[in-house]
Amino acid sequence: MDHYIDIRLRPDPDFAPPMLMEALYSKLHRALFDLQATDIGVSFPQHKLGVNARTLGDHLRLHSTQARLTQLMQQPWLNGMRDHVSVGDILAVPAEVQHRSVARKQFNTGNPSRAKRYAKRNGLAEEQAQAIYDQVAEKRIALPFVQLNSRSTQQRFALFIEHGKPEPTPRPGEFNHYGLSPTATIPWF
């Protein structure tokens, strides 16, 4: 994690930034999946929290080694997005930076199929299980998210992303095909 590359969305009168970030992140997910990359992390330096403001922003930062980022950027994963983004150079991470985890956070959103499975596992009536799930789902989620299709399961889902607290030292680990990790950290600056 000694190098990074910044990808910024360009203003577009036809497409809102969240829609463009969704398209960009979907393309990145496919590229990471195809490369079977577990050594590329992501962060969103301009993300915003809050029920009414949650957004990943218009800035995606990729973190890895110079060689791995070069390999990724040689792939045609940005085809179709070049008019909508500006891509920076691969640069060394500045000295004396903080580190953060950037991870997927899952929530119980009251999905009826989940309630049905919960009822079966716990010997409850489906209506009781759905009532339990509805109470939990009423909580307002303040994390930013994107709607994506999983490359492995083809399922569409909301990917909620949580930036952890800044830490003074990095933690090693692997990243998933979304560039996220519950344990590994990325440089934060």
UniProtKB/TrEMBL annotation:
One Pfam family in the UniProt entry: Cas_Csy4
Coiled coil: none
NCBIfam families given in the database record: cas_Csy4 (TIGR02563)
Name of this protein: Type I-F CRISPR-associated endoribonuclease Cas6/Csy4
Highest classification ranks of the organism: Bacteria, Pseudomonadati, Pseudomonadota, Gammaproteobacteria, Oceanospirillales
Gene giving rise to this polypeptide: cas6f
